[in-house]
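queue> pop job 88
queue> type: inverse folding (structure -> sequence)
queue> payload:
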């Protein structure tokens, strides 16, 4: 087993002056060299100077009369060393990489021996039992085909149609010319055929009389094999294939030009050009094309299906990449076969002892088999797909990686109560399944309590990070050292809610869960709390846009239409060429990823089935027990959280029967006395903060805080924010009614 650990980002490179974006255009100085050394800010001949706008020009942007203008900055052209370094990057290696490394050469040699020995053995076994009977059966037919072909050639059968056409048109002159031509051809070809027959018979007689038996046997076998190969049917070749081969043809420029013509990307006097030769690239072809002037990469994306048809391949074999050097340059990768139907294989997490969740971890491979590394830091992720396309398995792989980091706190809730997430009870700090209460335990209330507990933790993290000393928290942000310090209690946290639509549509707590998830997806990632939501119904009813839009990362497996794909991946994704509805039903665990990095593309996620997940989670629990980080539900700790709507009962309990309106500050102070464990931190807040805290807690139940007239302890009247007792009674009544209906 190995530890999956990817090094962090490289140290920031020194800024390249030649690549710096300047606020003004550049101009080159052409004045003669000065007689004396240049003063500060003076530019030498041949240098590049930032061109300042004319201060007398009233349209000069950003300058006013009398304003001070900074002296122009000197920008030098690239040095010879930088120029050579740039050229070195474009030079191809003389030898391939596998020839340079001894272990790679050994691996290739072993593969070649294994591959070709298997092929030789495959054909050797079939030679006496299958191939020899086929040769003997097909050789008479081959002799007949060969003799017929020779006869047609000798008697000029290929020109017979021309002679018949001359007879039909009653063109005597043309017929006589063709007849003389045929006679000459037959005479010449007959002589050649006769000489060939005589030489062949003489050679055969010589071999029969003078040659040793082994040579005679070899000659007869060769002739019989040749005749058998000629006589074999086209659909049943003489020799079986030792391996399965896929449809693969050589891609030529003519095929590419034909495809662009079929896609209507070219026109009269507007053709494509090839800035570099067509060549092999892995298990496919790499083609770089310059479209006609006026055509863009977006035009090629819209013509994707027509381009694939013009190349006579499936649309899933054609991949388009944008070239940043030109708006009309497009890079195509044409796979030999559908790469998305090829399984990506088992997850590398099976062989990992632990994972550093601060660093990217293996999630899958792209269409070319290159590893795709995922990272959940500082972001939230939305996963969407139709049922049975691998949505849960894709999300579970991320959760398994988090589980293998003992310093990551996991909250896992599954709205459909499937067996896929049951094993996470071994490591999850908070966990729940389904929406139906069982044995006195309500999983929906447990989710609400867990999210409220997490929201309070997020708010507390912001305050504590800003108060930590600079030598511990230099920039007021969470660091690996802070997250792993048990005294600070701010570990990385991953919240996984599978089939989130089941919770959002709950008749009692749906609105509360929506508000809490929106808050966490929007605010929590900045303090190390990431949210992963997955759904099979990403519409506005089941999963509102107010929640979807808070996710920076989007991952869409196969969906029903391009409109649904746009809902999951974000508006405008279809125009960028991202359409998950084009994925086939056979593309299990394959989806389009957007927002996790600067690039968007296809990910074939690794597979970790139920047994694999069990193995990984056993290892993850052992890690947490060893590090002392097993907590919450996994450790059997009794949750101190109460019912999500207990705030209504508590407020009703602290309000007197004769009190119609009460200040928020007074309510908070009474709540702290009523239940110090739940509201003690509220009482420590200052005046306005108390009112804000109470307003936020009552908002999910439709209760607003308004201006309320009251008297201070000194007896002085004042207007402050407060609540009405009747509003609390109405909210409790509505809640009880919903519970009775549920």
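queue> result:
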């Amino acid at each position: 087993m190995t530890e999956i650990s990817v090094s962090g980002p490289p140290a920031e490179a020194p800024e390249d002056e030649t690549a710096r974006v300047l606020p003004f255009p550049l101009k080159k100085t052409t004045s003669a060299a000065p007689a004396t050394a240049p003063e500060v800010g003076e530019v030498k001949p041949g240098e590049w100077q930032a061109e300042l706008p004319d201060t007398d020009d009233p349209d000069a942007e950003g300058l006013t009369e009398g304003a001070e203008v900074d002296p122009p900055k000197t920008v030098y052209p690239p040095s010879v060393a930088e120029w050579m370094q740039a050229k070195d990057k474009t030079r191809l290696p003389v030898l391939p990489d596998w020839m340079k490394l001894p272990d790679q050469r050994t691996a290739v040699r072993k593969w070649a021996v294994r591959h070709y020995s298997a092929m030789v053995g495959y054909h050797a076994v079939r030679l006496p039992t299958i191939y020899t009977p086929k040769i003997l059966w097909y050789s008479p037919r081959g002799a007949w085909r060969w003799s017929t072909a020779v006869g047609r050639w000798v008697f000029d059968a290929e020109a017979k149609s021309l002679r018949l056409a001359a007879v039909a048109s009653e063109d005597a002159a043309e017929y006589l010319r063709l007849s003389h031509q045929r006679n000459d051809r037959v005479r010449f070809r007959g002589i050649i055929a006769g000489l060939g027959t005589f030489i062949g018979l003489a050679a055969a007689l010589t071999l029969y009389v003078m040659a040793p038996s082994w040579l005679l046997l070899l000659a007869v076998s060769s002739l019989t094999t040749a005749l058998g190969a000629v006589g074999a049917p086209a659909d049943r070749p003489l020799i079986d294939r030792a391996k399965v081969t896929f449809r693969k043809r050589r891609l030529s420029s003519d095929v590419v030009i034909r495809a662009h013509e079929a896609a209507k990307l070219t026109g009269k006097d507007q053709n494509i050009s090839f800035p570099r030769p067509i060549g092999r690239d892995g298990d496919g072809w790499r083609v770089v094309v310059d479209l006609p002037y006026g055509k863009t990469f977006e035009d090629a994306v819209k013509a994707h299906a027509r381009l694939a048809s013009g190349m006579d391949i499936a649309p899933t074999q054609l991949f388009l990449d944008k070239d940043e050097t030109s708006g009309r340059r497009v890079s195509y990768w044409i796979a030999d076969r559908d790469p998305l139907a090829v399984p990506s294989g088992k997850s590398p997490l099976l062989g990992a002892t632990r994972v550093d969740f601060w660093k990217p971890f293996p999630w899958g491979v792209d269409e070319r088999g290159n590893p795709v590394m995922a990272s959940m830091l500082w972001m939230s992720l939305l996963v969407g797909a139709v049922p049975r396309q691998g949505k849960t398995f894709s999300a579970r792989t991320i959760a398994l990686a988090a589980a293998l980091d003992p310093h990551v706190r996991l909250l896992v809730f599954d709205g459909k109560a499937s067996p896929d997430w049951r094993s996470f009870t071994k490591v999850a700090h908070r966990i729940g399944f389904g929406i139906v209460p069982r044995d006195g335990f309500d999983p929906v209330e447990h989710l609400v309590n867990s999210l409220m507990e997490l929201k309070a933790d997020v708010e507390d993290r912001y305050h504590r990070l800003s108060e930590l000393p600079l030598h511990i928290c230099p920039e007021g942000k969470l660091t690996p050292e802070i997250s792993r310090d048990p005294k600070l209690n701010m570990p990385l946290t991953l919240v996984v809610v599978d089939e989130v639509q089941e919770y959002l549509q709950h008749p009692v707590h749906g609105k509360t869960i929506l508000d809490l998830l929106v808050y966490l997806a929007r605010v929590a990632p900045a303090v190390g709390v990431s949210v992963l939501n997955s759904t099979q119904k990403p519409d506005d009813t089941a999963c509102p846009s107010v929640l979807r839009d808070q996710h920076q990362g989007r991952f869409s497996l196969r969906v029903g239409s391009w409109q649904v794909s746009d809902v999951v991946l974000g508006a405008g994704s279809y125009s960028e060429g991202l359409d998950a509805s084009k994925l086939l039903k056979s593309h299990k665990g394959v989806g389009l990823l957007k927002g996790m990095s600067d690039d968007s593309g296809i990910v074939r996620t690794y597979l970790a089935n139920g047994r694999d997940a069990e193995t990984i989670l056993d290892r993850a629990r052992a890690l947490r027990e060893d590090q002392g980080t097993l907590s919450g539900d996994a450790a059997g700790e009794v949750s101190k959280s109460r019912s999500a709507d207990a705030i209504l009962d508590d407020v009703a309990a602290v309000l007197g029967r004769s009190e119609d309106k009460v200040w928020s500050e007074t309510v908070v102070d009474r709540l702290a006395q009523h239940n110090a464990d739940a509201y003690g931190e509220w009482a420590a807040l200052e005046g306005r903060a108390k009112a804000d805290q109470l307003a936020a807690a009552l908002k999910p139940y439709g209760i607003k805080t308004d201006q309320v007239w009251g008297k201070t302890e000194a007896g002085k009247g004042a207007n402050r924010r407060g609540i009405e007792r009747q509003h609390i009674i109405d909210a409790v009544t509505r809640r009880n009614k919903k519970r009775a209906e549920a």
